[in-house]
Write a structure and sequence with these properties.
With about 375 residues, this protein is of the alpha/beta class. The chain has one domain (about 1-275). It has helices at about 10-15, 40-50, 80-85, 110-120, 135-140, 145-160, 200-210, 235-240, 285-300, 360-365; strands spanning about 1-5, 20-25, 25-30, 60-65, 70, 75, 90-95, 125-130, 190-195, 215-220, 235, 255, 270-275, 305, 310-315, 325-330, 340, 350, 355-360. An 8-stranded mixed β-sheet has the order 1-2-7-8-9-10-13-14. Strand 7, helix 4 and strand 8 (about 125-130) form a beta-alpha-beta unit.
Length: about 375
């Protein structure tokens, strides 16, 4: 947490805005939700520094039977962190809760209100929200009372001191005349994003993201564990009720998330980020999956940011018995999912050849797609 955040897409956005890339974690802890969480980098960091029972991450993680760190569902509210952004004078791009999830089911609504109150005060900063739970984010942002509650939070917290054990933290003193005034809504300096890893999660989460009131919406396909087609997001009948149209409550239809759906009055996504998994138990990513997602974005005129390949790269045509650490892969021939096999050589026959992925490390695999980097970010609006 702090300034000079090294996450590539945060740094790229900050550079475009002549700001400092930073992270802000007023909540610590999380829990697994889907396969994208299995090798969570944040859980690994928290376990590394907290497994001995000391420090700010103590008690937040456990180990799986195979030794993989995971968050155990314990959450901590750290309100004093909010003053970091309030006291920062130079403009920053903050990745909020990069070590947790602001919209986790166990996060108290009052905590979220205080985070939004802080963001409402700090108009000289940009804030990036990213969640695997966009259903709760949608409910929070579309609730009629939310902006009033945020404004009352500003007024209520303004006169309080930060006593030990107090749930609240003083943000700013407002005049009596301000207590019923709504802040600009949606907040002009807050972007909302969702994480998906494959088509099933995209079908479940993208519709919620697109229905969130926000000045900008973005999607992070990282770690990418399967192909994702954003031009055909499938909405089943329970998701169709999100559109608040009784004629659609029993419908099943598709939505192009990159161009929006004018008949449904849904705005398109503003940005798509993609990347492979890194770390000791990283799963491979297919070049075909990435290329097809990039082509979807380019065709729709949407900025595409490719972060990394991760730990693996195609090893080409390897003879049987080649030593090394390999995983079954599609090597761009089809959409076959990967089945990882490490520790001994084993090849996968496909179209008469042995097509495999070889573990080379994040640095060696790089981030070039078709001979170039993809560092596109949304343009600054006037």
């Amino acid at each position: 947490m702090g300034d000079n955040c090294t996450i590539e897409w945060v740094a790229a956005l900050a550079k475009q805005r002549n700001a400092i890339p930073a992270s802000l974690n007023p909540i610590r802890g999380c829990s697994r939700l889907s396969e994208a969480c299995r090798n969570c980098y944040a859980a690994g960091i928290a376990h590394r520094f907290g497994h001995k029972g000391n420090g700010i991450w103590a008690g937040l993680t456990d180990l799986d039977p195979d030794g993989t760190p995971r968050f155990n569902g314990t959450l901590r509210w750290v309100p004093e962190v909010l003053t970091t952004a309030i006291n920062a004078k130079r403009s920053r791009v903050y990745f909020v809760c990069d070590m947790s999830d602001l919209f986790h089911a166990r996060v108290d609504q009052d905590w979220i209100d205080q985070v939004f109150a802080m963001m409402a005060l700090c108009r000289h900063h940009h804030f990036l929200l990213l969640t695997k739970r966009p259903d709760r984010m949608r409910r929070y942002l579309t609730a009629r009372e939310t902006p009033y509650r945020i404004n009352r939070c500003l007024y209520r917290l303004g006169g309080q001191s930060n006593r030990a054990g107090d749930q609240h933290f003083a943000l700013k003193v407002l005049d009596e005349s301000d207590k019923d005034r709504l802040p600009d809504w949606p907040l002009p300096n807050v972007w909302t994003g969702a994480t998906v890893e494959d088509q099933a999660e995209a079908d479940e989460r993208v519709a919620d993201l697109m229905l969130c009131p926000s000045v900008r919406r973005y999607l992070s396909v990282e770690p990418m564990l399967g192909p994702v087609d954003l031009t055909r997001i499938v909405l089943d009948e329970c998701e169709a009720t999100f559109l608040h149209d009784p004629r659609l409550t029993r419908a099943r239809f598709t939505l192009n998330a990159l161009t929006g759906a004018q008949s449904l009055r849904l705005p398109p996504l503003d940005w798509v980020i993609c990347g492979g998994e890194s770390g000791p138990k990283a799963r491979p990513i297919s070049r075909r999956w990435v290329r097809e997602l990039q082509e979807q974005c380019t065709s729709a005129g949407r900025p595409f940011f490719f972060k990394q390949w991760g730990e693996w790269e195609p090893a080409g045509m390897c003879p049987a018995g080649t030593a090394g650490r390999f995983a079954f892969g599609d090597y761009d021939f089809d959409r076959t999912c990967f089945h990882q096999v490490e520790g001994y050589p084993r090849q996968f026959d496909m179209f008469g050849a042995r097509a495999v992925m070889k573990r080379v490390g994040k640095k060696a695999s790089g981030r070039l797609l078709d001979g170039r980097t993809w560092d596109e970010v949304p343009e600054v609006r006037p």
